[in-house]
Amino acid sequence: MLSELSNDFKNFRLATKNLEIMDKYNDFKEMTKDELRQIIFNEITTNASRIDASLKKRTTYLFTISDLIEKFTPKEFTQIIPIQKDFNGAKTEVRDYFSTIEFIKSIGWDNKIPNGFEFLMNYWNMDVLVYTVNLMTTISDYQQRQTGKSIMQTFLED
After folding, report:
1. Distance (Å, whole) CA 45 – CA 41
2. Residues 120/125/126/132 CA torsion (nearest 10 deg)
3. How far is CA 36 from each of CA 40, 82, 133, 157, rounded to the nearest angstrom?
4. Nearest Cα to 73, choosing from 19, 31, 37?
5. pLDDT of residue 59
6. Cα separation of 82 and 102, whole Å?
7. CB 18 within 8 A of CB 39
């Protein structure tokens, strides 16, 4: 119980730090690369956006992080969040180190990431996986509020 409270406090503190950095600027273009790295690292490794906020704010914030990722190359991103060294993805038919490397090669190591959302969905790191699950849950909640049906319900109907 105490460790959960400690983690919640740490996440809150990091989310607050992210917001403090963001509040200093009118636009992300004004931020330094180090500040952008710090925000991305804090958000992905702690899932700081799970702090109580309206669905609209959570959706906007999560997609903002996805957009920030597009300011980096895959080489730069792997220095922020390393690819996890699991090598049995072909055997178990899940993402792994090799599938991530193949995906990055298709983009180019030194080219800007063209789509932050797609990049995260194809990147193998447990923190990134938890982040993308949070992102997809938020998207599904948003769609359900708009249409009355979650992404899964829509998928099963098609």
Report:
1. 6
2. 0
3. 6, 16, 22, 40
4. 37
5. 78
6. 15
7. yes
Give the span between the Cα atoms of 112 and 108, in whole angstroms.
8
CB 81 within 8 A of CB 41: yes
* Residue 119 pLDDT: 96
Is residue 78 within 8 Å of residue 119, measured between CB atoms?
no
CA–CA gap between residue 118 and residue 24 (Å, rounded): 29
Tokens describing residue 97:
């180190």
| pLDDT higher than threshold 90 for residue 76 | yes
DSSP 8-state secondary structure symbol assigned to residue 72: S
CB atoms under 10 Å from CB of 34, counted, come to 8
Segments making up each domain of the chain, as ranges: 2-157
Q: Residue 50, exposed/middle/buried by CB under 10 A (0-12, 13-18, 19+)?
A: middle
Between 120 and 54, residue with greater pLDDT: 120
- Residue 54's alpha-carbon distances to 13, 49, 51, 113, in angstroms, are 19, 11, 10, 29
Specify the 3-state DSSP secondary structure of 119.
helix
